Amino acid sequence: MPASKEVVVCSRGDLHVEVYEYDEEIKLAEGQNPIVAHITSFQVLKQVLEAKSKLFKNWLGWEGRWSEAGLKTVTVHHDNVIAMEVLFRSMHDAMTETVEKVEMEVIWHLVAAADKYFVDITPLSYWFARWHARFIRTLPLNFEKYTKLLFPTWRFDHAAAFSEATKFLAYESVYHVTESNPTKYGDLHLPPRVIQQINAAKGRLRTVLHRGLFGPNETLLFAGCKCKAQSLWGYEKALYDIEVWPLERVGLHSSMSQILARLKHFKYSVGPDACSGCRMDYERTVHEAHSSTLRYFDGLCLDCMDHTKSKTHDEDEDYWMHDILLENQWDSGCRFRHDEPTWYFSFMGRREVRDRFLKLRRSRRGNFNANEF
After folding, report:
1. DSSP 75
2. What's the CA dihedral at 160, 161, 164, 169 to 10 degrees?
3. Sorting pLDDT into bands at 50, 70 and 90, what band is 63?
């Protein structure tokens, strides 16, 4: 068994909490006891734990009811010792720079510990924001890291980080977007609707790009000139040569970011014998399709998601509360700027309510299009 480590969270502490962390990766034989990986004893104030943890209050505050009541040392098991240090330091307002350098997995253990001991993690939001800024700055982020960041950024209510992660996954993923949990705690995950909406936004990006690129096709299909076939063939061949066309097939093995990067290499102009109708600015069309797709989705918005969570126990009434927005101010009251698609995909209520709301809003402007999304 490893030696116990001492950590002084509060020098005036009148209680020691001994935390046993076990090696969860070792497969145990039947009847074998778990392997202890770390033992850390934290010097803390009993009064603080009772005030900020419902579970510790029950354990320690009612003399005689629990065996832990009145003890100077209590023992807890199956917790991550680093996560517990962060939790205890947060409860005592005694954070240090060292605990801002924890690994990603510790963040998940921290949430699990807060849930286990009924500790409100809201006061940890500012600490998490600092941790996230350091994490982003010091480690290159890839697809796997963003799938692990989804849940923590949502749970700690970090709007900018959550939007960044959801946007990254929508544009960078080739296949169905999922989240990753690096711990054993299967109950730590996003609401399923969130993953659904990220994938819906991901699929919508391909529709937006296809609509932008298809303009010349539609024009040439109805042209009356003899050169239209050659012009259309040349345009699609130019897209095919840079591995963008046909978009339905290319999208099966390429992320939207990869496709958009290839579009930067698009070059095409019709031959000298082409008529004026075929002499479209194909490169400008592709550039505009590229730009509109790139700007389309700003990631999911936690504030818009909150607007559409149940507040009145009536989803219809909840949703109409969002009508306080002025025209086109889809990010009103939100912590980062975004456009209508982000608001649309951040809706967590019933679709028919959302669509009815959009229809009314756009009918006021006279430009409702049921197929726009």
Report:
1. E
2. -150
3. low
